[in-house]
Amino acid sequence: MPPENVRDSKKIIAVVSDPITPDITAAVNALIAKKDLIEKAGFLRETSDGLNLISYDHDTLSVVAVAPKLNVATVPAAAVPVLAIDLTWREGVLAFGGLPLAPITM
């Protein structure tokens, strides 16, 4: 599929910026808020591994599925919400004692 025009690319970036970025942040923060319960249940590693998997999936989606559709002039603007999402997933992984494995996307 050829890249979108600048206007349509900005629409894609706007959706990634809001609601996707705040929703991911809220979800990770809600999970971190339950860390004590997760730890008591013995699921720190599984939670960290799950967040790593989601982080990797986010990177794959960003680089393989979405980025090629953006007009090249809009890629720097897309980097802002994508990096915020990357860092949020990494924060979650670290909160549960894991090591973030996915590369930083943008």
Can I get a quick summary?
With 106 residues, the protein is mainly alpha-helical.
Strand content: under 5%
Query: What's the mean pLDDT score?
Result: 93
Q: Count structural domains.
A: 1
Contiguous low-pLDDT stretches (5 residues minimum) are: none
Q: Structural class per helix/strand content?
A: mainly alpha
> What separation lies between the terminal Cα atoms?
21 Å
Rg is 15 Å
Q: Identify the overall geometry.
A: elongated
Largest sheet report: none
Give helix and strand order, one letter per element, not per position. Answer: HHHH
Number of helices: 4
* Fraction in helix: over 70%
Total strands: the figure is 0
InterPro entries: Cell_wall_mannoprotein_1
Pfam families: HsbA
Q: Explain this structure to me?
A:
InterPro entries: Cell_wall_mannoprotein_1. Pfam families: HsbA (PF12296). The protein has helices spanning about 5-35, 35-40, 45-65, 75-95. About 20% of the residues are buried. It has one domain. The model has no long low-confidence stretch (mean pLDDT about 95). About 75% of the residues lie in helices and about 0% in strands. The chain is mostly helical. The protein contains 4 helices and no strands. The protein starts with 5 loop residues before the first helix and ends in an 11-residue tail after the last helix.
